[in-house]
Design brief:
155 residues; OB fold (Dihydrolipoamide Acetyltransferase, E2P); 2 domains
Length: 155
Amino acid sequence: MKAVRKQRLMLLLFIACGVAIASGLALTALQENINLYFSPAQMQAGEAPAGSRIRGGGLVVPGSVKRADDSLKVSFQITDGGGIVTVHFDGILPDLFREGQGIVATGKLDEKGEFHADEVLAKHDENYMPPEVQDAIDKVHKPGKTYESAPDAEK
């Protein structure tokens, strides 16, 4: 094999290896940053992976918000009408957060089925419902129906 052909072959192999390594790193980074959405019914059914970073959302169950006296810790329940999940959050809740309103939270589900949120987002006006939350509610109940309280809320 001539020296010029050998140099070209080595260059092509070097470029191919570089592209393969870059593609592998990009796919790994993208896979780690995926936040899948799970409804409270799916979390209760065990469809959501415990310990993995996920998004979950629903309507805040009226009467379920409990705040700690000495810290920013708050716990509340969310529902989609088909299931109820307890959410724990340590931080400042959004100004628009209230009972009976839709929220979406990012965090991890523990082995007990409780959701530990790192971030809580509330809807931005009276007519808006996060699409994932609305779809989950629509799957369980008829669209347009409002929920004053959760069906299985602890009393």
